[in-house]
Amino acid sequence: MTDAAPSPLIIGIGGTTRAGSTSERVLVKALEAAERAGARTALFGGLFLSKLPIYDPATAGASDELTELLDGVRRADGVLIATPGYHGSISGLIKNALDSLEGLRDDPRPYFEGRAVGCLVTADGWQAGGTTLSAMRTTVHALRGWPTPLGVAFNPSAGPLFDQAGDLAQARDQAQIDMIAGQVVDFARMRMGAPA
Ligand SMILES: Cc1cc2nc3c(=O)[nH]c(=O)nc-3n(C[C@H](O)[C@H](O)[C@H](O)COP(=O)(O)O)c2cc1C
């Protein structure tokens, strides 16, 4: 008889301050999928991220929110990030949060090292969905994270993403969410030495 495997902690970073933010809603759906796969989760959503100071390399901009975000990333076994496509790339809000992870540079496990990172995008055009996803995966590489094999771009202008009940309207969209969350959780379990 072996001890039960510890439950990985998967954190979500993403969204906008807009009411009903689609990027935050898909991030929440991905965290729910991670929970169904056996993970614990924590969300750093758009409103929280808007309270982070603009990253200042001179001061590293200490604040309670920054401390909370850095501690969350330190404790995370896996990460999900969701951004809207703004002018063909990552929004300033999300990029500022990622730039702020410079506060983890001198940690024994810097940035996203050793963690899988699932990238999600919502954009009103497929072109921005692709370019933004590519930029996110490049940034995750720069932060020493392991982008999951699957990255997901949604286009809310191509048809409603959510139904009246707040569920994803298309089964294929839910399937993509389940897959990307599952890849983050599986990688976390592998790194924790437990069977996936
Ligand atoms: C400042 C700004 C820039 C945007 N730029 C683009 C863009 O270049 N291409 C695109 O397809 N959509 C663009 N959009 C649309 C957003 O990507 C889209 O509405 C997204 O779903 C918004 O995310 P949210 O619902 O989480 O706020 C832009 C929206 C804003 C507010």
Describe the protein.
- With 196 residues, this protein is an alpha/beta fold.
- It has one domain: Rossmann fold (3-Layer(aba) Sandwich), CATH 3.40.50.360.
- The chain is 41% helix and 17% strand.
- The chain has 6 helices and 7 strands.
- The chain has helices spanning 22-36, 46-50, 64-75, 92-100, 126-142, 171-192; strands at 9-14, 40-44, 78-86, 89-90, 116-122, 146-147, 152-154.
- Strands 1, 2, 3, 4, 5, 6 and 7 form a 7-stranded mixed sheet that branches.
- Helix 1 (22-36) packs across helix 6.
- It starts with 8 loop residues before the first strand and ends with a helix.
- The mean pLDDT is 95.
- The structure holds flavin mononucleotide.
Q: What's the short version?
A:
With 196 residues, the protein is of the alpha/beta class. The chain contains six helices and seven strands; from the N terminus they run βαβααββαβαββα. Strands 1, 2, 3, 4, 5, 6 and 7 form a seven-stranded mixed sheet that branches.
User: Count of helical segments?
Assistant: 6
Largest sheet: 7 strands, mixed
Portion in helices:
40-55%
- Mean residue pLDDT: 95
* Number of structurally distinct domains: 1
Whole-number radius of gyration?
16 Å
Strand content: 15-25%
Just give the CATH class.
Alpha Beta
Q: Tell me the CATH architecture.
A: 3-Layer(aba) Sandwich
Q: Which word captures the global form?
A: globular
- Which fold name corresponds to the CATH topology? Rossmann fold
Helix-strand makeup class: alpha/beta
Order of helices and strands: EHEHHEEHEHEEH
Total number of beta strands: 7
